[in-house]
Design brief:
Four copies of one chain form a homotetramer. The first copy, chain A, has 368 residues and is of the alpha/beta class. Helix content of chain A is 37%, strand content 25%. Chain A is built from twelve helices and 16 strands. In chain A, strands 12-11-7-10-9-8-15-16 form an eight-stranded mixed sheet. Chain A has a six-stranded parallel sheet with strand order 3-2-1-4-5-6, sandwiched between helices. Chain A has a two-stranded antiparallel ribbon with strand order 13-14. In chain A, helix 5 runs antiparallel to helix 11 (326-345) and helix 9 crosses helix 11. The radius of gyration of chain A is 21 Å and the shape is globular. Chain B binds chain C through residues 153, 155-156, 158, 211, 213, 215-220, 232, 234, 236, 238, 242-244, 246, 248, 250, 252-255, 264, 266-269, 274-275, 345-348, 361, 365, and chain C through 153, 155-156, 158, 211, 213, 215-220, 232, 234, 236, 238, 242-244, 246, 248, 250, 252-255, 264, 266-269, 274-275, 345-348, 361, 365. Strand 13 (281-285) of chain A pairs antiparallel with strand 12 of chain B, so a sheet runs across the interface. Chains A, B, C, D: One of its GO terms (cellular component) is cytoplasm. Chains A, B, C, D: Residues 148-270 form the GFO/IDH/MocA-like oxidoreductase domain. Chains A, B, C, D: Keywords: Oxidoreductase.
């Protein structure tokens, strides 16, 4: 008789939109993980969990500290509101657990720094921030191809995150906590820039930001202005050593979610999702040819989230390096915050090669 | 405390290419199913099962009759060689089990008939033949749209099954058991015709075949001729009441698997996979723009197979009708066999409205 | 001072839909041609010509025989009703003129034969039947690529001609003269099969038909039945030496004109217009992504018609072989007529290698 | 007998790459124009003209002033080197001629201003700067659709001009006269932004620039740096009243020319050329699916240039307003120059609502 499979005992914290999905993924779609517990302070979410998780043997907690004490618990997936990401991650690390944390670690750099320091003090535990696109098969195929050198040196990266317009205006109130459109939406695109621009070193050396600039408008939701936010943003990030990334984010894409990326190298370009579609169906009607696109981020990236759960689980069980380094996840926040600042103060922002903001181009240049 | 989830105890018979996949799906990707056992007479497959199934608590059998006696077993998924499909299905039904059988039931009509009769004698058990495309999200979206009437009456259906060329010539020897290209490959396309052409009656009334004709060539594998088979086939099926389906199958598609279908109605057309691709990546290189397509049937339809397992499981657990009727699955074989006959004898073959072959067009017409 | 350019003095016969377009092409878009005259017996067309042709120096005739005597006339483009194609072509040849004749030469084989015989008696004059798709840049690119051998031997050809539905029902009455859907629409697809399947010999050896079969329905226009015609047709043509072409034609495509072709070789496939569009615009709206396709045959093939005029003109001026051989154009009619016969009598039709119809498969086989 | 057609007697100045094309268009593809003369000081171009233009009755000049005195000359198309655009245009206007001038009017604003002033003093003469994309059928379809309001208010415009990499490095030396990549390449994209962002007023009110910023790298041609230029540029232009345009230009696109534009409105998006292709052919080979794209700007926009010639000719003959206003063409230069400045001095540049540069964001803001 073969030895039974060892499974990772994991809990999910937060059972909102993304938390419930993570719970499902660990419960049903990550064979080597066993979802043993879940935490939520929200009664509506507790009711959902009683119906959908408890019958599968998952214990429900309404106190995060109690969750951490769940017997045999090895890891936790933090998927609460953004402001709780860092505190829960830190507590979980200190409780000896491995952590998969939803992005961003925090919208504040100093707090990101605390997470990194805590993780550094517990080097045996795996801590990863979940940038889902890195697990999407099309992005992985692009990265794999970039590594072969077929497109030469990645030099320009264009990436966008465009959400379907939500007429409920939910995202307006959400803007006061989200860190703004560049931190909330474009952070994925920023992470892609860091990923592809560090491909030369296989991820060991992150590109260094030289300057950032951002612009935005409130085309449909003027109330965003009160939180220093916009519903359409354009940003450019210039890196030292000749690389540029430029981004677009929008809250008003009518047909659905359209996230796309171009990685432009000295010998070729990789294009991910230039031609969006939700499947392989096209309708030829008297009004022309029609196709649908994904309606939301999850519809586009569902399989990437599942893959993320699997790879995190494998990294823990096999004591391997997690696929995304925390330093890079913090750098993404730093760039997102700088873009949001540039949007708000209408200035181009400069950095020296050590990552410190400098006031003028002259100062930055002196460092060259 | 909530009531624990009830899971369907299922076994898989056959652990070859497709059997191993079915085992994985029931083991890891069908939350409400529990893979409790597996059967294979093949020592190589047994070794695989010891490594990949046994550690998850799956009992391995090398005797099919023993498998059927596995305690608590409720259902079996038959995924052995084609010639064993029907005998195992019949045995399993008679042992009181629900059965999901890989397509085709058999390459012989009389044997299909036996399966149907056996199933009819056990009306409380679910028996379904697995036509995977009916569970593919793009085909489901097309069917759903056809039901709304947006394309009017489905009138013409074009469908193709094109495999990547396998230079090993594996499929040549396989041809002696497969029933031929129309029974082995185009049976999926035939099933789609039956599905869409019975949409008007929500599947209750199958369209009646009036005539069939088939053509073929052995472009790359002349040895296929010894089994009355070809590597490229073209067939047309004419139905009474003004509907036509035409098919193409090929064993020599260089880039990979390209299965596509058009459902042409009086008001519009639905096209599934006219523009094949394996993901959302395109490469812009000095040689032009490139994309890849799926390399095999499973790469194209993996999610459909998983969905098939889930829906079969749900149908059993909730005592619902299975999504595909056995009558239709047998009719697909009948049409496939007739096409293969037409290929071999180079004649157009006619049927009367009762489904009997008639020798001449005159005879068929007299029945109108 | 350079020698002035010599221009071909040409006339257009017939100023209906296509005739007026040909007149425009020779007048304005064929630099080396000079449209000197035009003929039409129709008063409405005469009025159009007075406004659109006469101011450019084009003489208008209402008597075809007078047209032929126009001083200095060298060539005529015959674009009248189908029944006049052959008589006018013959007269023009006998009057010493070069002739570009719209397809088909005739819907009757015996009459096609007369044209060929007349042309053979005047070997110095150029006579060409205008199969426009051979001048379309995408088809030319496909043919050029086929000639390189990159797809191996062209083995299967699929081609369709689908017109936008015309609710006026114009095409119903037109059916009594058109020769039927296979002669009127699919003749283009048949011509493509002859073109690609003779690529091996650079057009010198046409493939030999072994059998044909056709099917059809009257989905929207039952009145077509009185002319032995249908609004949707499916046909298969089997050639000796292992090549098959299969066709679809429709009068009811809602979004517009969708003509497409696949040339499937032993090493690859060339696909022309699998992904139809009228330009490069897509609209992303709340109802999904939309694009338009050409509304009619001319919108799709306008540039091909212009190129046809240019190449015919060049062939005459430079005394070169015309790009399309008359034998091939007559063969296309023969196949189209056989398909239409098969549609009407519901039989598969066989030919021996000399192109004679034989009654049974046995007879055809005996010739092998 | 109808009155003969009146044709516009036009000359082309400059017979380099674009000049020769313009000459061809007016000679052979603009029915109502008559190319009567051409000027070039270059002996190689003179030889070309003797062979290709003179036989059609075109008189060749090697002195521009002599050209202007050609009897009966009504208009001139200026297609010389950029530095000669403005002087020749001014001379031609003063000689009483209508002028179609290649873009840009000049790379210097003061000189553009002289052209506008000269044109203003001769209000009866038509003067237009040829921004070819405005005549491309896909862009025209997009603009037409934008006018209907279907995408709401155009708010964000993304546009790129990417040339196929020319390993000869021709464009390096050319950079010293071109005004830089933003003036030479992105000027088309800037013009599109002005066009679409003034659609609300049907072109009467141009959007007002608030700030611009640009970035660039020399990925393949470091020598460009000596002319303050780059081979990849990213620029953003912010307009007062809530509109943003962002641009990308590249000299290193391997497969060919890829110019594309997205016009993003509050209710939808129009995308032009997201899915580039040179025609309707795709090749399905063992290496995947392949397609080609246009190899250069002319291959992409040939028909637009022809349409430009036709519309200019019609505007003159019918004394209508030319389709592109000179003010807008000068504004495009102003923005291009500002972007190039921003690239060179690494600063974000601000404008007040009167179009004057202001030093700081504060100053610009004070004007709000």
């Amino acid at each position: 008789m073969s030895k039974p499979v060892r499974k990772l005992k994991i809990a999910v914290s937060g059972l909102g939109r993304m938390g419930a999905r993570h719970a499902n993924h660990f419960l049903h779609r990550t064979p080597k993980a066993e979802l043993v517990a879940a935490f939520t302070p929200d009664q509506k979410e507790v009711a959902w969990a009683r119906e959908h998780l408890e019958p599968w043997g998952v214990k429900i907690y309404t106190d995060f500290d109690e969750l951490l004490k769940h017997e045999g618990l090895e890891a936790v997936c933090v998927a609460t509101v953004t402001t709780a990401h860092a505190p829960q991650t830190i507590k979980a690390i200190e409780a000896g657990l491995h952590v998969l944390c939803e992005k961003p670690l925090s919208t504040e750099l100093a707090i990101c720094q605390q997470v990194l320091e805590t993780a550094a003090r517990h080097p045996k535990q795996k801590v990863m921030c979940g940038f889902s696109r890195r697990f999407d098969s099309s992005y992985v195929a692009a990265y794999t191809q970039a590594l072969t050198g077929s497109i030469g040196r990645p030099t320009i990266l264009r990436s966008q995150t465009c959400d379907k317009y939500d007429p409920s205006g939910f995202f307006v109130e959400y803007a006061q906590f989200s860190g703004g459109i560049f931190v909330d939406c474009n952070i994925h695109d920023i992470d892609l820039a860091l990923w592809f621009f560090s491909a030369e070193s296989k991820g060991k050396v992150l590109p260094k930001v030289k300057s950032v600039v951002a612009f935005g408008v409130t085309a449909l939701e003027p109330d965003l202005a009160k939180y220093g936010d916009v519903d359409n943003g354009v940003g450019v990030v210039e890196f030292y050593d000749g690389q540029i990334a430029y981004f677009y984010s929008s809250r008003m894409n009518p047909p659905g979610q359209h996230d796309m990326t171009e990685i432009i190298g000295t010998k070729g370009k990789l294009s991910v999702n230039a031609n969006p579609t939700v499947g392989l169906l096209e309708s030829h009607l008297s009004t022309g040819i029609h196709r649908d696109i994904p309606q939301n981020y999850y519809e586009r990236f569902e399989h990437a989230f599942v893959e993320e759960a699997r790879q995190f689980t494998d990294a823990v069980l096999e004591d391997k390096q997690v696929p995304i380094d925390l330093t890079s996840s913090m750098e993404a926040v730093r760039i997102g915050v700088a873009l949001q600042d540039s949007l708000r103060n209408e200035k181009k922002i400069f950095f020296d090669r050590d990552g410190k903001r400098v006031d003028e181009v002259g100062q930055a240049r002196a460092k060259l």
